[in-house]
């Protein structure tokens, strides 16, 4: 090993140590706490949402496909709600596949969308970026 490479090894070792310490602090801090866990029925709805590839067309919090509407707040949107969601699951539109969901599956999807709706508002214009880098969202159940 030449004497010219020693400073580089020191710098790389220092940077790797700093990176390890940074990751330890970030992943062991209380900066992120899940606001709410899904109920067992909502978990079944989430699984259906994934299995039927609803993400391909629809978005939750702006993430997903662009063919269908964002469903983050469909449960609480004016003129919509559980009956609207179930009716859409029954009939859909021309570009939406016919899934033939059972009543239990529709209830699970509605429960999933209800719990997603309770977590926040999209788009969330009241989000604040904290000094730590975490984004503080305003949730529906917070005043």
Descriptors:
143 residues, mainly alpha, 2 domains, two-stranded antiparallel sheet, 4 helices, elongated
Distance between the termini: 63 Å
Name of the CATH architecture of the largest domain:
Orthogonal Bundle
Structural class: mainly alpha
- Total helical segments: 4
pLDDT < 50 runs, ≥5 residues: none
Strand tally is 4
Percentage of β-strand residues: 5-15%
**The top level CATH class name of the largest domain:** Mainly Alpha
The tally of structural domains comes to 2
Helix content: 40-55%
How large, in whole angstroms, is the Cα Rg? 22 Å
**Could you give the order of strands across the largest sheet?**
1-2
Oligomer: single chain
Would you list the SSEs in sequence order as H and E?
Answer: HHEEHHEE
The CATH homology group name of the largest domain: Cytochrome c-like domain
Overall mean pLDDT: 86
Overall body shape: elongated
CATH topology of the largest domain: Cytochrome Bc1 Complex, Chain D, domain 2
Please give the largest β-sheet: 2 strands, antiparallel
Model description:
The structure is a single chain. The chain is mainly alpha-helical and 143 residues long. 43% of the residues lie in helices and 6% in strands. The strands form two sheets. A two-stranded antiparallel sheet has the order 1-2. It has a two-stranded antiparallel ribbon with strand order 3-4. A hairpin with a 5-residue loop joins β3 and β4. α3 packs across α4.
Give a nutshell description of this structure.
The protein has helices at 6-27, 40-51, 82-91, 103-119; strands spanning 59-60, 63-64, 128-129, 135-136.
């Amino acid at each position: 090993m030449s004497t010219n490479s020693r400073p580089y090894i020191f710098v790389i070792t220092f940077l790797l140590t700093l990176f390890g310490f940074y990751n330890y602090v970030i992943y062991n801090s209380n900066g992120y706490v899940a606001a709410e866990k899904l109920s067992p029925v909502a978990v079944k709805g989430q699984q259906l949402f994934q299995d039927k590839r609803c993400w391909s067309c629809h978005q939750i919090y702006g993430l997903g496909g662009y063919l269908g509407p964002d469903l983050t707040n469909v449960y609480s949107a004016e003129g919509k709600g559980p009956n609207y969601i179930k009716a859409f699951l029954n009939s859909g539109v021309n570009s939406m596949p016919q899934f033939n969901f059972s009543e239990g599956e529709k209830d699970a999807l509605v429960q999933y969308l209800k719990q997603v709706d309770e977590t926040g508002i999209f788009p969330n214009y009241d989000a604040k970026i904290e000094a730590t880098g975490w984004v503080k969202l305003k949730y529906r159940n917070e005043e």
